[in-house]
Design brief:
alpha+beta; 5-stranded antiparallel sheet; 12 strands; 52% helix; 20% strand
């Protein structure tokens, strides 16, 4: 009789264990599948919105530089393109369908023979579609530009290649799969440990059906605790907080996450903060520590300055600092650090970019803002020249302090009207 009772209780325990594991797998997979579907749809909308915003920005930038020579235009647009992580190709086509600029320089001055929307029928001034181009299948946004008399002069295309979009989708799916697998493994390990402990206790309760009740209650408590942890991970992913989800699972550097969070809190401008976050990632790839100065703040209400100007000025100065530190001979006793600061108050803007690179030799200090001057080789020397021009067009100024072997600091000051 006791043996039959023990066998019945063991059968109940095993049945509960099987049901528990089935629920773990089913719930985790269903949540992950739903999350993948939601994020893929969200990504598609995000891609289109990013292309439209970028197209609008480039259209405004082009209105300032349309009178540049072709070489100057190419250099400037190349620098703009490098600062845009969400765009693969930029193409500027005049009204006679000649390509004035293209990310692929081999296509400049060639005829554009693709489709063109009827801009007279586009209410918002932008049109986005799937199409094919010299670079393959792509998602592209068209925006028209006009001359001083309001006459149509051509159009600009901002393009995201389907291969890039697919890579983002694959990354999303891979992330969900990693989370799903880790969640299942963790739940299985936790449940396995719990069941082993329960089994030991269960044997001493075989004379009493209360042993089975203990088993069920313990399983329920453990499942609820793990489900909470799982919801945190999957919830972060479903709301698009991929970095936080990865940090929660893989213990990514807390310093970097705090820096990104500080930027989001300090910078009241989506394009500007997005640029800085992108530069933090690039700095990390260059083995450079990106430090945000204390009490940084940027408020749109403090000063009226185009977002594209902020992106261009800051992007060029940070890139110069990273390039300078990358060119120096590595020292085991010296870590590379880039310190960035931005401050606004009523009608005033201050930007500082400081590095501990090799510094600028005194004999070339007066030449760094000259057009065509560069220590990086032929075809360079326009970044700081155009940056200075852009700052001065905003009514501001730029200064530099440098000491050989110690580093360089650029300071930008703009006083609005």
């Amino acid at each position: 009789m006791k043996t039959d009772k023990k066998e019945n209780l063991n059968s109940i325990r095993k049945s509960i264990q099987r049901v528990h594991f089935v629920l773990i797998f089913a719930t985790t997979i269903l949540i992950s599948a739903g999350g993948i579907f939601i994020n893929i749809n969200s990504n598609e909308k995000s891609f289109d919105q990013s292309l439209i915003e970028t197209s609008e920005m480039i259209n405004r930038v082009y209105s300032f530089i349309k009178d540049f020579s072709q070489d100057e235009l190419c250099d400037y647009m190349d620098s703009v393109g490098k600062s845009l992580a969400d765009v693969d190709v930029i193409s500027i086509v005049d009204k006679d369908f000649n390509r004035i600029y293209h990310t692929n320089h081999l296509l400049i001055n060639t005829k554009y023979d693709g489709s063109v929307p009827d801009f007279n029928k586009i209410r918002l001034g932008f049109y986005t579609e799937n199409n094919n181009g010299p670079s393959g299948p792509q998602r592209r946004t068209y925006s028209a530009f006009y001359d001083e008399n309001g006459e149509y002069s051509g159009f600009i295309m901002t393009i995201r290649l389907k291969t890039s979009i697919m890579m983002v989708t694959i990354h999303t799916v891979e992330l969900f799969l990693v989370v799903t697998v880790i969640a299942i493994i963790l739940e299985t390990l936790i449940s396995g440990m719990l069941f082993r402990k329960i089994k030991q206790s269960f044997l001493s309760f075989t004379e009493d059906f209360e042993g089975t009740k203990f088993l069920v209650d313990s399983m329920r408590a453990n499942n609820h605790d793990f489900t909470n942890k799982l919801h945190v991970i999957l919830g972060l992913i479903q709301i698009g907080e991929y970095e936080k989800a990865e940090a929660y699972i893989e213990n990514i550097s807390i310093i970097q996450r705090e820096t990104v969070s500080a930027i989001m809190k300090a910078i009241d401008n989506a394009s500007f903060s997005a640029l800085l976050i992108g530069k933090i990632c690039r700095a990390s790839e260059c083995n450079v520590k990106f430090v945000l100065e204390d009490n940084c703040i940027f408020k749109n209400e403090d000063i009226s300055i185009p977002s594209e100007a902020l992106v261009t000025i800051t992007g060029n100065l940070i890139d110069n600092a990273l390039d300078a530190m990358n060119m120096q001979i590595e020292s085991v006793n010296k870590s590379k650090t880039l310190t960035f600061g931005v401050f606004t108050k009523s009608k005033n803007l201050l930007i500082t970019v400081k590095d501990n690179g090799p510094g600028i030799p005194k004999n070339i200090m007066d030449k760094i803002f000259e057009k065509g001057f560069s220590t990086k080789g032929e075809g360079r020397g326009v970044g700081l020249f155009h940056t200075k021009q852009l700052i001065e067009s905003l009514g501001g100024s730029i200064s530099v302090e440098s000491m050989e072997g110690m580093g360089t600091k650029f300071t930008v000051s703009v006083c609005g009207k």
